[in-house]
Amino acid sequence: MNVRGKHLDLIWKADPALKAPPRFRRACKYRAFVPDAIEGWQPDLKGDLAMVVVDAERRLQMLNSRPANALDPFARLLLRTESVASSRIEGMQADLRSVARAETRREAGANVGPESVEVLANIEAMQIVVENSSAAEKLSVERLRHIHRALLQRVPMRETQAGRIRTEQNWIGGNDFNPCEADFVPPPPDHVEPLLEDLIRFCGESNVPPVVQAAVAHAQFETIHPFADGNGRTGRALVHVVLRRRGITPSYVLPISVVLAANKGRYIAGLESYRDGDASVWIEQFAVSTARAADVAVSYLERVAELQRQWRGMLADSAVPRADAAAWKVIESLPAHPLISIAAAVSATGRTRPAVAHAFEQLVVAAVLTPVSANRRNRVFEAAGLLELLEEVESGVSTVG
Known about the structure:
By secondary structure, the chain is mainly alpha-helical. The protein is built from 16 helices and five strands. The radius of gyration is 23 Å and the shape is globular.
């Protein structure tokens, strides 16, 4: 096995005062893995693998050939989908429907559960992270810390963990007391910063195909595991930063976590193959996942656009409002707000509250919107058919063809 790195055989010190069963208080042996540097490394893309990478990049370009900007409801829709899926890989159970409900509750000033608060914060942070990190002159370790800090701004231990590179040994699997039974032990703390500096230099190179660069950067980051918590979501955010900085995803955040979450075991096995020295297995898996995510996104956007056309037809058949009526603007904004309140629509459309209130009356009559809450003061409305479509896409199954 051609491992790209080295194992360190280490001793975990005994801790008689540890509040744990006796066997966990004793000294024990463990093996930490220190990956090789990747600056200047160009993975060998033989035959079929090169074709898979080219195909993935072609599909990404097809997705991003659609005009969009940071405020486009369709761009916001994909960003929301990716952020929720990335959170679910981390073990959070919030789905798109529950997140949409939480968002409208928060807008109305109501209490929202801590898990939904964290997912909503991830959505907001992801947009800021991708835009700011992509616009920065260059990446840096400090920029990685900023990404981590933004993504963990709502976690319970944010004061001690967010943006802080670990100074202690961490591990994956096993028990909570020592790394001796762990499935994987990342590098000891004194190796972390040099490895991150190397990773940053690799991310600044331009002689590696963008999809390969994103795949390797993500796998190397997860292998380093530089933070005490939140490495997964930060590593997946790094994927989007790399792809955006290389100019291959200028308009849309790729919903790759939807595909990865659909087979989490295979995702983890792919990262393990990278650490075991067979980077081609991981690169192929990542490229295939990228291509599928791009297909899912294209189909997703096409079906939401078709839904919008249906809503416009339903409104026209029901009310035939003026061409500049607020109802048309509300329909434009709905992809970003599957559950929407009048206050949210005012913010999204820039129209006055009376105009939006009248638009909602027209859209309810046309069956485009359905009230889903009894509170008339902060009533929430659901866009017909949109949440069902979101749930279908959340499954990670492409709807192309």
